[in-house]
Design brief:
406 residues, mainly alpha, 3-stranded antiparallel beta sheet, 3-stranded mixed beta sheet, 8 strands
C-alpha cells in the first residue's frame, strides 16, 4: 500500500495493457519506456511483448503500485485469449498445423499442412506491426479519454462494426497532450462489416448470435474463420473443382472477374492490407451464403464443414452452438477430469498465480464454467461418465452449468 502511485486511472473496457500504461505515464509526464524503468529498475520491453506476455514480476509490481488486481491486468494482454481463442502466441514448430489447419470448409486441410514457412508465425499477428497502432478513428474521437482496444491490434478485425469504418494506423502524438493523429477514415465494405460484427461480438462477449438464430462461441468462430481465410486465398487448383467454383463465385461478386485471390499462397498474416481486405470480403460472402441455407451438396462438401454444422444446429433447434474446443484440451477427455485439467494447466506452463486465478474465475464465471464442462463431456456417451465428470467439477468448486440459460 505504501508503494501505491498517487495517479493510476482505471483500465477501460477492452483496453490493451500498453494503452493503459501510456495513460498512466502521461499523468506523470513520462514516456512509456521511462515508466517501465520505474517498475522494473531499468528493463524495457517493446510494445508487443508487453501486450503479449509481460513478465510476472512486472505484473506483480504494476498491481502493487496501482491497486488493480493482477487478473484484471492480465485481461489486458493477449494471454486473455489463450487457450480458448488462440492456442498460443509463442511461436512453435507445429502451431500453424494445429491452429490454422484444424478445420476445413472448402478443401482438405492436409494440403496446407505441407507448406513450409518460418517457425516465427503467430496467429493473427503481423510481423513488426506494433511499430504502429491500429484503431477506429471515430472511437478515439468519441472516447472521453482516448484509448486503444486490445482486439484492434490483431488482424481478425479489419473494421469497427459500430461505426462502419476501416481500422487505420494511428500515431500517438506523445507528451504533454495525450492525443492520437488519425487519418481520414474510410467506409468499410458491407461484407467486411458483416463478418467483423460476428468477430467483435465473439471477442467481447465470448459468443455471437448469428443471423440464422444460432449462437456460436468465440473459440469455434475465430478458428474456423482463420482456416477459411487460408482456403479462400490458396490457389484454385488446391481447392479442387468444387471448392474452387465456390471461391471464384465469391471473388466474382467483388471484382466481377472469375478468378481466385490471384496470388502466391502464404499464411494470411503475410499478405498486404489490400489483399487481406479482398480475402475477408470473399470469406464473408461464402459465410453469408452458408448461413442463408444455401446448399453446397452439388459441390460434395464433406460433413463437419462450416455450413453443414451451422445447418445441423439450425435443423435440430440447438440454441447454444458450443461444439469446439482447442486441440490441447482434448486431454480433458480422460476419465479423471481433475487430473486432465491439471495436466492442461501444466502443459500451458501457468504460474501459480495464473492457476489460482483460473480456478477462482471458473468458480463464479458462468460462461467459463459452462465451457469447461462442455470440453469434458465432449464425445461422452453414457450418463455414468458424464456424472463422474460433474462430481469432479463439484469437488473443484466449479458449478454445473448445463446450458447458458441455467
Amino acid at each position: 500500500m505504501f508503494n501505491r502511485w498517487p495517479y493510476h486511472p482505471l483500465p477501460q473496457e477492452q483496453e490493451s495493457l500498453t494503452s493503459w500504461l501510456r495513460r498512466i505515464a502521461q499523468g506523470y509526464n513520462l514516456s512509456l519506456d521511462s515508466l517501465q524503468k520505474c517498475i522494473l529498475n531499468g528493463d524495457v520491453f517493446d510494445n508487443f511483448e508487453l501486450d503479449k506476455n509481460p513478465p510476472l514480476q512486472f505484473l506483480l509490481q504494476l498491481s502493487d503500485k496501482t491497486g488493480i488486481e493482477i487478473s484484471r491486468i492480465v485481461f489486458m494482454t493477449l494471454k486473455s485469449y489463450v487457450p480458448f481463442i488462440v492456442d498460443s502466441f509463442i511461436p512453435q514448430e507445429d502451431l500453424f498445423e494445429h491452429y490454422a489447419c484444424q478445420f476445413h470448409t472448402l478443401s482438405p486441410a492436409a494440403k496446407r499442412k505441407k507448406i513450409n514457412f518460418p517457425n516465427s508465425w503467430m496467429p493473427w499477428v503481423i510481423k513488426d506491426h506494433y511499430t504502429s497502432l491500429r484503431a477506429c478513428a471515430l472511437c478515439l474521437q468519441n472516447d472521453k479519454v482516448p484509448y486503444i482496444r486490445l482486439f484492434w491490434q490483431l488482424y481478425w478485425l479489419s473494421s469497427c462494426p459500430h461505426h462502419g469504418i476501416m481500422l487505420e494506423e494511428v500515431i500517438f502524438l506523445g507528451l504533454p497532450q495525450y492525443q492520437f493523429f488519425c487519418p481520414k477514415h474510410k467506409q468499410a465494405p458491407e461484407e467486411i462489416k458483416f463478418i467483423d460484427k460476428i468477430t467483435q461480438d465473439c471477442l467481447i462477449h465470448g459468443f455471437s448470435n448469428l443471423p440464422n438464430g444460432i449462437r456460436i462461441n468465440a473459440s469455434i468462430w475465430i478458428r474456423k474463420l482463420r482456416s477459411l481465410l487460408d482456403e479462400v486465398s490458396q490457389p484454385l487448383i488446391v481447392s479442387g473443382v468444387f471448392g474452387g467454383e465456390i471461391i471464384k463465385n465469391a471473388y466474382y461478386s467483388i471484382t466481377k472477374k472469375h478468378e481466385g485471390a490471384n496470388c502466391r499462397w502464404k499464411p494470411f498474416e503475410e499478405f498486404t492490407l489490400e489483399l487481406k481486405t479482398k480475402i475477408f470480403c470473399a470469406a464473408s460472402i461464402i459465410v453469408q451464403e452458408m448461413l442463408q441455407g444455401k446448399s453446397y451438396s452439388k459441390w460434395r462438401i464433406k460433413r463437419n464443414t462450416l455450413d453443414t454444422e451451422f445447418l445441423y444446429a439450425q435443423k435440430n433447434n440447438i440454441e447454444d452452438y458450443q461444439s469446439y474446443y482447442p486441440p490441447d484440451l482434448k486431454k480433458l477427455n480422460e476419465h479423471n477430469s481433475r487430473l486432465a485439467l491439471l495436466t492442461l494447466l501444466s502443459d500451458n506452463k501457468m504460474t501459480t498465480e495464473e492457476e489460482n486465478e483460473f480456478w477462482k474465475k471458473s468458480s463464479h464465471d458462468k460462461i467459463l464454467a459452462f465451457l469447461i464442462r462442455q470440453m469434458l463431456i465432449k464425445r461422452k456417451r453414457s450418463a455414468k461418465s458424464i456424472q463422474l465428470i460433474d462430481n469432479d467439477l463439484q469437488e473443484l468448486g466449479i458449478p454445473i452449468i448445463h446450458t447458458l440459460n441455467d
